[in-house]
Amino acid sequence: MSERPLALVVEDSPDQMALLRRYLDREGFDVLSAVDAESAISAFADISPLVAVIDLLLPGITGAECARLVRARFPECYLIVSSVLDEADYPDADAALPKPIVGADLRRLLAEVRR
């Protein structure tokens, strides 16, 4: 059993997923990755993420709906939404991570989680 905290990443772009996995691993997180909201939701019974990074533009269930479901199921989870959309269009979350994702921006947000 790992002592590292869990990060849930919901991202349909393989390149963005690989980037987020690498950044989060470096920051000391285990990562559960899902390519769509349905896959993430199906894992809810078995996980307890400290942080979630959710792309807003997902196939099927939207990222905004996925973020709402994460918030409802894991109220203590630090919720980060990520997108190419204008930040004014982001749903309510703890933080925004506009694309293209920059490692320093994610590190800064994760420092908030650790406080």
Tags for this entry?
115 residues; alpha/beta; Rossmann fold; 5-stranded parallel β-sheet; 4 helices; 22% strand; Sig_transdc_resp-reg_receiver; Transcriptional regulatory protein OmpR
Note down, in words, how this protein is organized:
There is one protein chain. The chain is α/β, with parallel strands linked by helices. It has one domain (6-113): 3-Layer(aba) Sandwich (Rossmann fold). Helix content is 36%, strand content 22%. The chain has helices spanning 14-26, 37-42, 63-73, 103-113, and strands at residues 6-10, 30-34, 51-55, 78-83, 95-98. This is Transcriptional regulatory protein OmpR. Keywords: Phosphoprotein.
